[in-house]
Amino acid sequence: MNRTINDQELLIMTPSTLWRLLLQEGVFLDVTTGTSLRSLLTGQLGLAPDYVERHVDAVFLDGHPIDDIDRTSVPDGGRIAIAGALPGAAGIAMRRNSPVAALRGGITGTNDTDKPAEERGRIQMRIFGLVLHTVAHKLLQRGVIVEAARIASFLREDEKATVLSHGHPEDRDAVLTRLVTQGTEAIECRVMIADGNGTLNPADS
């Protein structure tokens, strides 16, 4: 994805949890790379350390299952996925420090031998299972980077969403037209999901 983000930052206010699926499909985040995966999850993304230890059972980096999230660094451009307990024998094998990790064959990610320098970069993040339902609000409120056309697709499905740009309300139809025109352009988007009474759902961790 192009690193130049449009100067339009969208804030979407909605009662719909549909937007959590953005994280399942994958979003981009600007973070400090070169830190450990654990530091990314707890220090930068704000997940509680105890939650990560008890509930984030599987962590993948560039498609490789990771056992040691303290000794594996986040690379610029890295593709990271996290999940809770995965089903079946294959799912058990993919869990961190699984007793049947040998079933993975040679796909397990390796630990870093030298710690890379810390610098700003961009990663892709995907979240699955119960972890998605628990932490989605927190990450969406933090802000994610998504292709404009994908935001348009979600906005069409969510008729109750209101859109603000730089703190000012925007006309939905005008926003949709603009997003479709922008296509694959990267847009920074924050989503605040509220309950039926208009109260923001807590960003559980």
Secondary-structure topology with pairs:
Layout (H helix, E strand, L loop, with lengths): L8 E6 L6 H5 L1 E7 L3 H8 L4 H7 L2 E4 L2 E2 L13 E5 L4 H7 L24 E10 H14 L1 E4 H10 L4 E4 L2 E3 L1 H11 L3 E8 L12
Parallel strand pairs: 1-10, 5-6
Antiparallel strand pairs: 1-8, 2-6, 3-4, 3-5, 7-10, 8-9
Helix pairs in contact: 6-7
List the main descriptive attributes of the protein structure presented here.
205 residues; alpha+beta; 5-stranded mixed sheet; 30% helix; globular
Count of distinct strands: 10
Strand order of the largest sheet: 7-10-1-8-9
- The pLDDT mean sits at 84
Beta-strand proportion: 25-35%
By secondary-structure content and strand pairing, the structural class works out as alpha+beta
> Count of helices?
7
- Low-pLDDT regions: none
* Cα radius of gyration in angstroms: 18 Å
Overall helicity: 25-40%
The main sheet comes to: 5 strands, mixed
The termini sit apart by 29 Å
What's the SSE pattern? Answer: EHEHHEEEHEHEHEEHE
Task: Give a brief description.
It is built from 7 helices and 10 strands.
In words, what does this structure look like?
The protein is an alpha+beta fold. The protein has 7 helices and 10 strands. It has a 5-stranded mixed β-sheet. Strands 2-6-5-3-4 form a 5-stranded mixed β-sheet. Helix 6 runs antiparallel to helix 7. The longest helix has 14 residues. The model has no long low-confidence stretch (mean pLDDT 84).
